[in-house]
Amino acid sequence: MIVNNLSLCYQNKLILAPMVRVGTLPMRLLALDYGADIVYCEELIDLKMLQCKRVVNEVLSTVDFVAPDDRVVFRTCEKEQNRVVFQMGTSDAERALAVARLVENDVAGIDINMGCPKEYSTKGGMGAALLSDPDKIEKILSTLVRGTCRPVTCKIRILPSLEDTLSLVKRIERTGIAAIAVHGRKREERPQHPVSCEIIKAIAETLSIPVIANGGSHDHIQQHLDIENFRQATAASSVMVARAAMWNPSIFLKGGLRPLEEVMQKYIRYAVQYDNHYTNTKYCLCQMLREQLESPQGRLLHAAQSSQEICEAFGLGTFYEETTRELDARRAELLARTPEELGEPAEDSSGVIKMAVKFDRRAYPPQITPKMCLLEWCRREKLTQPVYETVQRPLDRLFCSTVTVAEQKYQSTLWDKSKKLAEQSAAIVCLRSQGLPEGRLGEESPSLHKRKRETPDQDPGGPGSQQPAFPGELCKKPFMALESEMSPLEGR
């Protein structure tokens, strides 16, 4: 049997289960504070992760995996590095390995989701759909065990018969994985169905690797002592807690559950400190409040439309202001550093004409933009259409674009919040330096061909929106070129 290079022990552990929309960084850190030994991130799909670029966020002291649309798909930090397990959804061994290699230096383990019964997972052959394809399971796990330096695990549900279940888990064990988590329900069963402690126990008695029992929140786990009782009932090595931890992460605390108000405030502090999106923060807090959602505080939470408003609803307005000031100061300090201090070569901007300008949509008619004006001028002058080169600054994820027209480059010195806005600013620099009209309201300009209305986030004539460049990565294109909510995990 192949044995991977292990650095994470799965024996005798309290584990935060992977939960969609819940298992983000603030919840994982909170669970660790309250006594969890290992924390799993929410299931992240391989195809989405393969689009991400790893970015060191110096402002937050985190490592971010950022999608082309600038969304942080996975964020982690040093505090959890040796105890966080990355769970992915996959149906392909090579993609799984590529993702594992992308994240392996920032996590303690790699897990494959083979238990989620939700359609968003199973329709792609992932999650519980893998249970009907043992050959694919074996290929994915064997490839990961051979190809990554981190311990590999998987999380499954039980099959219709004990015989089939034991046959599958023995085959899984032979791939060389470090441990297996077992949710003691069948694929079609939900939390209201009883968890099969006897089948988890049979699996634990059959295998030599650690078995992690999961699925006890509904029937068995209401307080910390219940976790050990569930472990003994299943003869498992460790216990993985989902819903009970989502409702109150202090379930891991030996001293007993902490007051919910205290737990929620601590969660909010982590959410602000690590710039968690307010919609995710709000969702997790709603799961904790549960039947108290109609309380005065619950109504304030429901009405909140920003992290600041969430903080104010929980008496943390001053904390929010102080923390955001600290982060802004840190950001300004880093932005003020020279390229030499940042360890980057100074950019050669020789020959680039620069102005400090920004595009303001309100200053232009609905169907006119500077890029349109520049393109029309180039056509009249029989010049090659403008080419835009856009970069994104990793530190604050702002954009700067340079446009080339007739072999001359033009650029705004002001950075913009989107790629499209940065391109409009570059076009303004070119037009103004040439003394050309840019299409502003009240400005005399040559007639333009009528086009579909262009917004800062959509180029005219493009079939769809183009994803912004990866942080720090150059993106070139001619002007006219191509431009879910998941429910909380079910019974995991």
Quick tags:
TIM Barrel; elongated; disordered C terminus; 492 residues; 16% strand; alpha/beta; 3 domains; eight-stranded parallel β-barrel
In percent, how helical is the residue content? 25-40%
Q: CATH-wise, what's the superfamily of the largest domain?
A: Aldolase class I
Counted up, domains total 3
Enumerate how many helices there are, as a single number. 17
Regarding quaternary structure, what we see is single chain
The strand order across the widest sheet is 1-2-7-8-9-10-11-12
- Report the top-level CATH class of the largest domain: Alpha Beta
Spatial separation of the terminal alpha carbons: 29 Å
Can you tell me the CATH topology of the largest domain?
TIM Barrel
The CATH architecture of the largest domain can be given as Alpha-Beta Barrel
Structural class: alpha/beta
Average pLDDT over all residues:
87
Q: Report the C-alpha radius of gyration, rounded.
A: 26 Å
Sheet-strand content, in percent, reads 15-25%
Detail the poorly predicted runs: 1-5, 343-348, 449-492
Shape verdict = elongated
**Strand elements, count:** 17
- Give the biggest beta sheet: 8 strands, parallel, barrel
Tell me briefly what this model is.
The protein has 17 helices and 17 strands.
Describe the 3D structure:
- Pfam families: dsrm, Dus.
- Its EC number is 1.3.1.91.
- By secondary structure, the protein is an alpha/beta fold.
- The chain folds into three domains: 13-255, TIM Barrel (Alpha-Beta Barrel); 259-338, no CATH class; 346-434, Double Stranded RNA Binding Domain (2-Layer Sandwich).
- It is 35% helix and 16% strand.
- It has helices at 25-33, 46-50, 93-103, 119-122, 134-147, 162-173, 197-206, 224-234, 243-247, 260-273, 278-289, 296-303, 307-313, 317-335, 339-342, 370-380, 419-433, and strands spanning 14-16, 38-40, 44-45, 53-57, 62-66, 72-77, 84-89, 109-114, 152-157, 179-183, 211-214, 238-241, 352-355, 387-392, 399-405, 408-412, 475-478.
- The strands form three sheets. It has an eight-stranded parallel β-barrel, surrounded by six helices.
- A hairpin with a 4-residue loop joins strand 4 and strand 5.
- The radius of gyration is 26 Å and the shape is elongated.
- Residues 1-5, 343-348 and 449-492 have low confidence and may be disordered.
